[in-house]
Amino acid sequence: MSKPKFVFFFGGAEATVTSKDILGGKGAGLMEMTKIGLPVPAGFTIGIPACEEYYKNSRKLPKPIVEEVKANLDRLEKQVGKKLGDPKDPLLVSVRSGAARSMPGMLETILNLGLNDKSVEGLAAKTGNPRFAYDSYRRFIQMYSTTAMGLSKEPMEEMLGDMKKKLGAKSDTDLKADDLKKLCEEFKAFYKSKKKAAFPQDPLEQLWGAIDAVFNSWEADKSVTYRRVEKITDLKGTAVNIVQMVFGNKGDNSGTGVCFTRDPNSGENVFYGDCLINAQGEDVVAGIRTPLKLIELEKKVPTAYKQLCQVRKTLEKNFKEMQDLEFTIEDGKLYMLQCRTGKRLPAAAFKIAVDMVEEGLITKADAIARITPEQVEGVFYPIIDVAAVGSAKLRELKIAQGIDAVPGSAAGKLIFNAADAEVETKKGTKVILIRRETSPEDVGGMFAAQGILTATGGKTSHAAVVARGWGKCCIVGCEALDIDANAKTVKVGGKVLKQGDEVTINGTTGEIFLGALPLKKPEQTKEFKTLLGWCDEIRRLKVYTNADTPRDAVKAIELGAEGIGLVRTEHMFFKDFKVPANSEKRQLAIQEMIIADDVEARKKALAKLLPFQRGDFKGIFEAMDDKPVTIRLIDPPLHEFTPKDDAGVQKLSKVTGMSPEHIRLRCDQLHESNPMIGHRGCRLCITYPEILDMQVTAIIEAAVECEKSGIKVHPEIEIPVTIDRKEIKILADQIRAVADPIIKKAGSKVHYLVGTMIETPRAALLADEIAEVTEFFSFGTNDLTQLTMGLSRDDAGRFLPDYVLPEKEGGKAIFASDPFVSLDQAGVGQLLKLAIAKGRATRKNLKIAICGEHGGEARSVKFCHTIGMDAVSCSPFRVPIARLAAAQAVIEEKAAAKAARATVAKKTAEKKPTRATAKAPAKKAPAKKAPAKK
Amino acid sequence: MSKPKFVFFFGGAEATVTSKDILGGKGAGLMEMTKIGLPVPAGFTIGIPACEEYYKNSRKLPKPIVEEVKANLDRLEKQVGKKLGDPKDPLLVSVRSGAARSMPGMLETILNLGLNDKSVEGLAAKTGNPRFAYDSYRRFIQMYSTTAMGLSKEPMEEMLGDMKKKLGAKSDTDLKADDLKKLCEEFKAFYKSKKKAAFPQDPLEQLWGAIDAVFNSWEADKSVTYRRVEKITDLKGTAVNIVQMVFGNKGDNSGTGVCFTRDPNSGENVFYGDCLINAQGEDVVAGIRTPLKLIELEKKVPTAYKQLCQVRKTLEKNFKEMQDLEFTIEDGKLYMLQCRTGKRLPAAAFKIAVDMVEEGLITKADAIARITPEQVEGVFYPIIDVAAVGSAKLRELKIAQGIDAVPGSAAGKLIFNAADAEVETKKGTKVILIRRETSPEDVGGMFAAQGILTATGGKTSHAAVVARGWGKCCIVGCEALDIDANAKTVKVGGKVLKQGDEVTINGTTGEIFLGALPLKKPEQTKEFKTLLGWCDEIRRLKVYTNADTPRDAVKAIELGAEGIGLVRTEHMFFKDFKVPANSEKRQLAIQEMIIADDVEARKKALAKLLPFQRGDFKGIFEAMDDKPVTIRLIDPPLHEFTPKDDAGVQKLSKVTGMSPEHIRLRCDQLHESNPMIGHRGCRLCITYPEILDMQVTAIIEAAVECEKSGIKVHPEIEIPVTIDRKEIKILADQIRAVADPIIKKAGSKVHYLVGTMIETPRAALLADEIAEVTEFFSFGTNDLTQLTMGLSRDDAGRFLPDYVLPEKEGGKAIFASDPFVSLDQAGVGQLLKLAIAKGRATRKNLKIAICGEHGGEARSVKFCHTIGMDAVSCSPFRVPIARLAAAQAVIEEKAAAKAARATVAKKTAEKKPTRATAKAPAKKAPAKKAPAKK
Fold it and tell me: What is the ipTM of this complex?
């Protein structure tokens, strides 16, 4: 019962506790290093559960924990043979935060604690270095006053500055011991004037203040924001690490450094880091002096360096991961101050993981498990060359912040409409298309542009979805932009930018910069390909892509797609990717079809579209040779395609011979109050069966032609927005009635499937009936999310932040994440499970996939695996993420199964002795009888 | 095996078959009358299954049925002692259609079949009346040529006319036998010229042609349309009745008549009908001669009249229903030609049902079961006094046809905007408000108007829903109206009507007429109240009303509402029903709230609204003393309340001091792509909690004040558009935090509930979680239908007809009815069942109701009963329908249970002998052993 529950001494009996969830990352590292025999300064960790108790107890450390801390402090003092505040030879400690995962710069730290007016003299005497002692003291006073006592930083920094100015000192190091002593006095006086009390001299009082400061920093605004941005929801608090101070600034036999066990930029297996001789750790971080390469240490302090190299090996062997280390050498003696998994650039992550597999350190499954979706994404996108620009300059150039819709960066001239964007691009100009919002008419310009920037919309707005499909850098919802599309100007932050002005956008962060900044090109490394190849070996979920052009299809295959899960045929209506000159013809033909007054006129217009669509499909079949291609029939409401301006109306009038008034009337008639739930999807083909006829003819004729030229085709025709068995039966029958004669006539053997999107709740609820007449399901979770939640993704930006943001930021934290980004497993997920069960009950071999935006989001992909889908489909650039997540899902499934088996085994094992005990008396019984016989 | 399967002889061995589903209505009536000994001409019925066979066999009667018909014809000839086509004394037959339910005028009939050039002479000789014989023959040729052979009617009618002109004959009866004989020749020549064959002389050929004609009429366009309009989906075809002709035109001892066993207009228990002496049945129907009152028959043919009165009694005793009869007297002998349940006016339906209960003929349950929802509805609404106008005149005055949104009729001056409608009404003018579509701003004018007419929208558009709530006559979606609201004119069918022109609208039929036609006032009869009282005795489902004003509440109580299931608080925002002068103040306050730039400004505006809302709620609590009142917090998106024109903006600018530009900007910012799934419902209170604070304060303060003045209050506060447990928990907590202190401070004992609308699929799917924090559910099936089906009710008019219309009318017949009118049980119904099960699993005593439009639709109400809801809520005028349907649901449930018990009993009875048989060998076994013992 006397065993400490909240405080853990390094290397003590409690060293069995190594969980980061209790000790925090830093504490766990120190504990682990102590355990495996590495040189770590003495100390202990006040665990994260103490932080929880602290908050439960109204930000006050409960008595029993106070007692535990005192007992551990005693032990620390005994172990190092020094006492906190000892006027002769004081023990100094650092008080550092440490959550279960790194939150760099968010939580507080206080160093040199234990110094006061007396002990500082002892330190000076003991080290023979009064300057060092008073410098340490003044730093402590500064840190403690600001961090623990809430004073602002500037006044004391100014006092230091004033003194330097007065003495003509260039740097801090020019100040003498007496100067620093005087500064300490000034600081203390300042402290007293502000806090109406003397600076605390009692080291224990200092300690409690520091511990509170660390705990309080957990709920500071910046920490809360950081956790939201990083989507950290599982952390419960911070630990506090109280560790004996060691000093790297005791002379040329001392030093300090920060290093990585491998190169975090390239991933190469070389010892990588910086060090400073005769310096403290903060000097390395602050960048006041130019640090040396780690290798220099070999010459300066060879023994310690050799020892450090040994530590590197030991740590990698122990953690099986690249480590980020902090060390200090005090008088030639090496102390390890921190070790943690090192951050790395995306490409490096792949190299390290693959290398470690080849070195036999980890398994392929381990390698896959430790890659994050963000690292996969990061491999692809161009980034601003910060080194070339300089980070200060970069800050200065930033003019606005939008929503990071598609990562990567792009630089170019601002262009205000799609047509100009196409024209400028043809001239060789790099352009950034800026629009209030985008529509299908803009697709050509969007495609031409280097990057896309909109003033409205969220991560699933038209702009974001289309750009993501191409992996094209995109920032949306940048409300600071006040765009005048006619004048071709944008007001932003007091500036007015006009067409042709250069900007750079960073879609990874949502930042917008003035000027065309230098960018670095991405590349897919050998190790990236190797690791994703391993993913393919173990995943069960197939990964398809959403692609509307041969170009997208080729890109997707390169990235590992096994087929196309969604071709949005309407994306072909506005843009001829092969012969750009034909784009307008297509556009006019579709518009002519829409405004047609009768079936005959509509058929005439459709006949013009047919060869274009057939050509598109041929291109895609060629690109996808022998891979399945799921082609969705027309989906969006027709008004999305109508001419948006007078020029468009005039052109259409010329082509059709209809009066502009009549055209405008027909367009007006298409207006809908709620187009998302209006006349769209297969409802269009119910009303205008001739559209289906044209599209199916184009698909099947293309398939037949490709087959003749030796290409293997697997078309799957998909019907969108289904709500009823009879509805889809009518359309499926019609598809077959159009397709079969074409195939028969050509003497072809093309085999095609007919299936449906499941994107309305009704379709999910009636999936058993719908499966009777369809051969595959593809979940359109964008729409299914909208309908299940009654949430328009185009409008949700108005209030969804209230649902997703934490309370500290004015939100209500109702959802953990945007349901359009990560699938709503509790709600929408229920419908998916239901539809899968019902669908398969009717048709055992029903092919089931997802093709909403969620199909490329790792958490959602794992969910799709878990509920038994056959495939996911996502935009080309998300294919590798899906491959990774699908593999991780298998790994996690196995781990869960193993854990479950272990639990069963444990229970069985626990039961066994019980049974033995139960049997024991039975065995004893005859023994008891025996004496009776005597 | 020789027993006929498809053809049934009246009174024959097969008289056990009496089902209308097999014999059709007419056949069943004749069979039944024969069976109970009434005088019926000899004949037989070719059953409805034969019609199905006919169509299965490509519109050809299969051989075995042909044989059966021949056998029955033999039997008929034998029974009457005459032969079809006999040149001396021919048997003539009628060939009549007859479906399981009456489809008046839709299906075909051929009379006098069996006449040819020879038998007509025989008939002339036998009757001594050549004129009668040739008149019969020319009628037969006409009927047969047009009905069976597809010739058009006009030419032969013209030939008849020409002959009359030539001979100076005023009416048909002025034509002599020879004239008619000549006419027969002309007809036959005409027939031959058209059909390139002589008019068939073989009576059997005539018979097969006539049978085909009747069967073919089943799928004729007009029949198909009729069935769709009448929502007849369960009929499988028509029977064919072949009956010996009897003649009422054989002299003054002959006659014919149509009568009802009770007065179908008043329902009074008097013999009611018309007859003609010396005439055939068709003459009564055609109205060529003015018929006599039935009572006259007593003087003319007393024996037959006495017999007829006996028939009346026998039939009512037998059928326990008011019957509609056709009879003919031939030479003093009465023949019953038809009996069927008589159609009646709505009020009469109630009187007859209640009288029959009092007469001991039927039970209360029988009475309830036979009332239709349409009869209930029909009791309420004013109708055009057709008698006063004249039906021909009425047809002439019709100018357009819209969608029948709310039944009843209204007449008044056309007014083009809501404000004018209010002004004119104050002057005492009766107005019809005509709008392209209506919005909440129009509510005042809508309320003032006699009737509402819109050019767009469907049965659940704003106009329809609001009008239905008031039981106010309304026609929507009349696309023929080309409205110019500024010019205050409407173009329709070539005419231009301007403001002030008089029209009459019939919301029951969707017809619009020129001029203010005379209307008849409805009244609720004693019997109506008695019967609905009986409904209340047996129903389990409570019936609440949707009401937004004390006036509606009072009306609803009169109509039997037990509480308010839905108060739409936002309906109070635009209209002060007590002090109309305050309406503008309310409107400006809500607009001020909406455009407020910050919380303080919003709170200021809300403070202005508070007293209005409190006053509204007080009025409602007073009206609903001791009855529950469910009050829904603000639901629609805010942009619905913004000023719609410049004058509105200017007014608001004056009140708020905001510039018109800024107001317009704020209004623009509220624009949404899909407002139905946008920022609405409780999302508004998540974003603007101060709106909830105001509304809850108003509700609870009103409740507390009412309670003090002795009124019992049961407020239930309802949160709309919920999607998540946490969301509703936040709001429920907030409601209690506002309400409880008010109650406590007042020392009041007001008890209130907090509940939610279930109107998103997600809320239904997570009902178990949501029930943790709510005390009642109310299904908002309007929205739930929209979301489950992904179907915007405002836009669905564009394509829903394609889903609901039958193929013959260019539709696909995907749904049996509009899912916004009758609940989609297969899809939405699944979610309701799921949510009820999940909700009750969490909270056993959860109150569950429905408050969508479906709550007043009979089929949907029955479904709500079946799935275990506690209550339905509907607009006041639909309360009686809901009471009726709820009672019918209990009756149907009992009948189903009884039928199930009977099936079990039958199975048990069937099993018993089996068991006995099974046991038999066992019993025999010892018997077998016995001899062995011998």
Answer: 0.79
